[in-house]
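User: Can you predict the 3D structure for this chain?
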Amino acid sequence: MVTADALHTQQDTARYLVEGKKADYLFTVKDNQPTSSKTSKTSTWKRFPPAHTEIDKGHGRIETRRIWTRTDLGGYSDFPYWAQVFRIERTSTDWRGEHLSIEGAYGLTSLRPRRAGPARLLGLNRGHGSIENGLPYVRDVTFDEDPCRIRQYAGAPVMAALRHLAISLLRRAGATHIAQALRACGRDKQRPLRWLGLAMS
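Assistant: Here is the predicted structure, written as structure tokens:
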């Protein structure tokens, strides 16, 4: 099962996954895919109640996620192997019901309804979002990647690879907060070497 953002919502990618890798896909749809975008947005989603709703409370917010799914849009899109299209709406307020924000997203998937109902589609989309938001945040905020001035030759990809290595090593060691784990390694320089099996006993 492969989830991807709108950059990868391409017909060649869908064919490669389904035909070449025998996998299923769940793609986000944005305006850079005119055919797919039309397939999603011409549907009259709000005429029907959402197929599934989830409500989460935490971090001072109440977040409600709703999903609508459709399978009857054949003829509107020639995107390969699609089986369902969906619309997700996220509504967020504070504890008092104020500071309302509403976000919408569209997508399509090769998973048929018998294999992935609305609840699973919502979970897959949310899981992709947590991965997408987690890694760039750590790289940008904890490692200050954006202000980095290393640009010449292979410097930028080498530094990116080193950051990924550090993040992967810390997570394999059980770190749930990368910034705290980095500070712990700064206090004990033998710690990362022990994780790599390089420290002398």
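The chain has a mean pLDDT of 81. DSSP finds six helices and six strands in the chain.
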